[in-house]
Design goal:
single chain, about 325 residues, four-stranded parallel β-sheet, 15 helices, globular
Length: about 325
């Protein structure tokens, strides 16, 4: 809020990794430096853990082992899905599995549908059933050819393809050879698993991006602010990993950290506790006590607790799904739509 001269940052990236990188990283793409692959893999491991330990998860038990088997199968043999609206038959390959997995990690409210879709693939369901499951999964993670709610007469156009590189490539120092993306992607996949190549190649357009911003800000990021900055980080964020919030909090000498123990990209509408802390900060300039941790309202696969949503909680969950569907990176939008 400008009048109060306060700012809260949620879904935080390491600003040094985003811009210049650290010593020895001049040949590493910025999207690799960010280590979003690590955040995404941590979130997927939590999906496996909560699926196995919870109730009514269609992909339990041994979710991690079964997912690995699915991934290995799809590398060598695609499956086919039938679009329930058009009847079009489409291939579903390994890269589609990884893209949809990342999309599901953006909001754990989608995890039950994600688990059901994985189980349908494993069972080698027919194209019609797989297509229906895929359409449902797209709906709950907020992607697809939907209509703009403000202008329902015209199709919605997501401009991630243009907007993402226009900002990211202009802000960051990157290699000018695709060979560096190949090397970085292979290394990231070896260390951080399924999402290493995806998050690396998300920035490959920067290798030959023609635009630049001579007035970009590349630091320092440790300036003293007149009022505290509230830094918000979600523990299992698949895009802006939690460590980004820790780095920003460490860099900013006058900042407070709010940790949200949850499974999604960003904390807004995820936790009533976190929303109240942020509201108190923005309205009253009150910062949380050191070490404050807020819990996510609904724990995935928690059985009766998740099923007994109050109307307010259900409304918040719907808002959360809508918002996070608008936050998917352009590399995922391309694959999912």
């Amino acid at each position: 809020m400008i009048g109060h001269r306060v700012v809260a940052i949620d879904g935080v990236l390491d600003p040094i990794a985003w811009t210049t990188g650290r010593q020895g990283q001049h040949d590493v793409p910025f999207s690799t430096r960010l280590r979003s692959d690590q955040g995404a893999m941590s979130a997927l491991k939590e999906f496996f853990r909560l699926c196995d330990a919870g109730e009514d998860c269609a992909f339990a038990p041994n979710a991690a082992r079964r997912y690995k088997a699915l991934a290995e199968r799809l590398i060598t043999r695609a499956i086919y899905t039938e679009d329930p609206e058009t009847g079009e038959i489409r291939r579903f390959r390994y890269q589609d599995l990884i893209s949809f997995s990342l999309g599901a990690m953006y909001d754990s409210a989608s995890w039950p549908e994600f688990a059901e879709f994985l189980a349908a693939i494993e069972a080698e369901a027919n194209a019609t059933r797989l297509g229906t499951g895929l359409a449902r999964l797209k709906q709950v993670i907020g992607v697809g050819r939907s209509q703009d709610r403000a202008f329902p007469e015209r199709p919605e156009y997501p401009n991630f393809v243009e907007g993402f590189p226009g900002v990211a490539c202009s802000d960051s120092d990157d290699p000018d050879s695709y060979k560096r993306w190949t090397e970085a992607g292979a290394s990231a996949a070896e260390v951080f698993g399924y999402f290493g190549r995806l998050w690396t190649w998300a920035s490959s357009i920067c290798a030959n991006w023609p635009g630049r911003d001579d007035d970009r800000y590349a630091g320092p990021f440790d300036r003293m602010t007149n009022r505290p900055v509230l830094v918000v980080g979600t523990k299992f964020d698949p895009a802006t990993r939690y460590q980004g919030a820790l780095i920003a909090h460490d860099l900013l000498p006058n900042s407070a950290l709010l940790t949200v123990h949850g499974w999604a990209h960003g904390a807004i509408f995820l936790s009533t506790c976190a929303d109240q802390v942020m509201a108190a900060y923005l309205i009253h300039r009150t910062t949380p006590a050191e070490g404050t941790v807020c819990e996510q309202d609904v724990v995935p696969f928690a059985g009766s607790e998740a099923a007994a949503l109050t109307p307010a909680a259900a409304s918040r969950q719907a808002a959360s799904r809508f918002l996070r569907g608008r936050l998917l990176p352009q590399v995922v939008i391309r694959s999912l739509d």
